[in-house]
């Protein structure tokens, strides 16, 4: 079932240090180191979630420690695999 999450406003978000293997997560692709990191779990548990809204997210990449501002358009939904996240985007 397709669901939509709409964000508005500015959010400081914290990257999750652990991801549940096989679980779907919502996060960002760091443009600096090209690695994904998750900031929340996908409530649909399926990746069938649409993200929208004018929000801004202040997040620090847990891989290279670069802090930057992301937008909803930068969000990616991906399934975490054993040994690391795998992009579906
Ligand atoms: Zn990074």
UniProtKB/TrEMBL annotation:
<protein>
    <submittedName>
        <fullName>Uncharacterized protein</fullName>
    </submittedName>
</protein>
């Amino acid at each position: 079932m397709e669901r939509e999450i709409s964000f508005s406003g500015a959010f400081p978000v914290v990257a999750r240090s652990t991801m549940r293997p096989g679980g779907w997560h919502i996060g960002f692709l760091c443009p600096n180191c090209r690695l994904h990191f998750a900031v929340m779990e996908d409530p649909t548990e399926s990746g069938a979630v649409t993200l929208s809204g004018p929000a801004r997210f202040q997040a620090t990449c847990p891989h290279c420690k670069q802090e930057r501002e992301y937008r909803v358009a930068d969000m990616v939904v991906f399934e975490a695999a054993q040994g690391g996240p795998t992009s579906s985007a």
